[in-house]
Specification:
Elements lengths: L11 E6 L7 E7 L5 E8 L2 H9 L5 E4 L5 E3 L11 E2 L13
Parallel strand pairs: 1-4, 5-6
Antiparallel strand pairs: 1-2, 2-3, 4-5
Length: 98
């Protein structure tokens, strides 16, 4: 991770499905010019926890779901190129993470 110091509200959180056999989500928070600095990383148990993790850091949150979709989970306006908005009722396939 970089030495860049992030402030809440900056950057973008990227939430990524882990391998199904290990369960959970990898959470990454990038800030700085073009979100080029990884400032924090954590592994959490599931999608709702991952989204909450991202939202505590920034209003810009993307999640890669178990079905391979990228969804917008942030409170900032959804960027072009992301067609789906994540909602807490989104279901995760049985046995899959995130």
């Amino acid at each position: 991770m970089s030495g860049h110091r992030a402030r809440p509200g900056e950057g973008t959180a990227w939430l990524v499905t882990d391998r199904p056999e290990t369960a959970g989500c990898h959470c990454y928070w990038y800030t700085g010019p073009k979100d080029g600095h990884l400032v924090e990383h954590e592994h959490v148990d599931g999608a709702a926890e991952a989204v909450a993790w991202g939202r505590r850091r920034t209003p810009r949150v993307r999640i890669r779901t178990a079905d391979g979709r990228t969804a917008w989970a942030g409170s900032a306006p959804r960027p072009a190129g992301i067609a789906h908005s994540w909602i807490e009722t989104d279901r995760v396939p049985e046995g899959a993470s995130c």
